[in-house]
Specification:
This protein is mostly helical. It has 3 domains: 2-94, Ankyrin repeat-containing domain (Serine Threonine Protein Phosphatase 5, Tetratricopeptide repeat, Alpha Horseshoe); 102-221, Ankyrin repeat-containing domain (Serine Threonine Protein Phosphatase 5, Tetratricopeptide repeat), CATH 1.25.40; 223-319, Alpha Horseshoe (Serine Threonine Protein Phosphatase 5, Tetratricopeptide repeat). The chain is 53% helix and 3% strand. It is built from 20 helices and 4 strands. The strands form 2 sheets. Strands 1-2 form a two-stranded antiparallel sheet. Strands 3-4 form a two-stranded antiparallel ribbon. α7 (101-107) packs parallel to α9 (134-140), α15 runs parallel beside α17 and α18 runs parallel beside α20. The protein is globular.
Length: 319
């Protein structure tokens, strides 16, 4: 059912339903409602008639708009806002999906959020059933309302700019969502209001956005403090073959000699991949070929063990 919804195949949805398919079933963190609107994480689908009809059919068949799913894992009406498609929002509202402060924050309804905070200032720190705050919902949204104004208002009322929401086993802050929606004004505001700029830089690079990484640098980010999965961000960019971003980090002065928990430097990572261009760039930036991992291996040892003869030769010559 999830896959049929993802491809917006009403014919398959009807056939599967006839065979006992569950309109509320979950597969790989998705439910059919969320899959119609967001086929993949951070990849919303345009609300064409085919998808809107599938969404309405699922709701008619008893799909629960309050069940969590998608990325970030949330109620369907919030995922609709995260998709930035008013037609999805309207279909869910017509079917009785719950409308509350988190929804108003996600659709950019500043006046409603102002009234809510006036009546209940604690709403700024409250959590939806998904674990997201209104600030998370605002940052994750692609709707056209006053999202930056709402974020500023929430922060003025005590929202924690570094609060985390759990989704898919990760703990994510509002900055991550602002990067994902390419909302530069909101991203900048969060940094100005106390978000960790080095963490923001890592998020921006992982999402292939050097423009946002530049903003993070202007707000005090350190290319050597920045971590991804607890490892130096340069090492991670090399490890996952993000060549453009690794070179950008080197241009910004990132050290090629910082080690991860195994004692691997960026040079070890480049050696394992056999990427001669990156090996040369790291050497030019001062990469130390003599540094050993915790099990005593130099980058040249890693290259040879990985069958990367050209990289091993480069490293051996530089040693």
């Amino acid at each position: 059912m999830v896959e049929a919804a993802r491809t917006a195949s009403k014919k398959d949805l009807v056939s599967l339903r006839r065979e006992g398919g569950d309109v509320n079933g979950s597969w790989q963190h998705y439910r059919p409602l969320q899959a119609v609107m967001q086929p993949a994480p951070q990849q919303p689908a345009k609300a064409d008639s085919k998808r809107v009809n599938c969404l309405k059919w699922l709701l008619e068949q008893g799909a629960d708009p309050e069940a969590l799913g998608g990325w970030p894992s949330a109620r369907a009406i919030l995922v609709a806002a995260f998709s930035g498609e008013p037609a999805y929002v309207e279909a869910l509202r017509a079917a009785g999906a719950r409308v509350d402060g988190f929804f108003f924050a996600a659709v950019g309804d500043l006046k409603r959020v102002e009234r809510l905070l006036r009546d209940d200032p604690a709403f700024a720190s409250a959590r939806d059933t998904s674990g997201m705050t209104a600030l998370h919902c605002c940052a994750a949204s692609r709707m056209t309302g006053d999202l930056t104004g709402i974020a500023n208002l929430l922060l003025d009322h005590g929202a924690d700019v570094n609060a985390k929401a759990g989704t898919w086993g990760q703990q994510l802050d509002a900055v991550v969502f602002a990067v994902g929606t390419c909302h530069s004004d909101l991203f900048t505001l969060l940094l100005e209001r106390g978000a960790d700029p080095s963490a923001a830089l890592a998020s921006a690079l992982w999402r292939t956005c050097t423009e946002f990484a530049e903003i993070a640098l202007r707000h005090g980010a350190s290319v050597d403090i920045a971590k991804d999965d607890g490892k130096p961000v340069l090492n991670q960019m090399v490890r996952w073959d993000r060549v453009k971003h690794a070179l950008w980090l080197l241009e910004k002065g990132a050290s090629p000699n910082l080690a991860d928990d195994r004692g691997w430097t960026a040079l070890h990572q480049a050696a394992a991949r056999g990427n001669e261009g990156l090996v040369k760039a790291l050497l030019d930036a001062g990469g130390d070929t003599a540094l050993k991992s915790k099990d005593g291996k130099m980058p040249s040892d890693i290259a040879r063990a990985s069958g990367k003869a050209a990289a091993a030769e480069l490293l051996g010559a530089a040693h």
